[in-house]
What does this fold into?
Amino acid sequence: MRLELAQAKAERIIRDELERLGWQAAGSASHGKRDSDKPGAAARLRKETTLSVKQIAARLHLGTPGGASVCLLAAMTKRTSSTQPPSTQGHLET
It folds into this structure.
């Protein structure tokens, strides 16, 4: 039951992301495995669902799980660093 809910949520997220990108239902297959928009969708799936990297790679056509993992890590690191406030280390307030 829990697995079915996770898969349904993943499909909803994928549908939302494809719609946001303006792609058709089979859109992720028609775009290259290193398309610049795919890592963002993969990062959202990884963050909001319990899907494995292997499942995400297969569903979004990201290539091998190992390559998808590197791409996903880079996207998640980029997303995290862009949402954090700038560091104040080394700056003294006067």
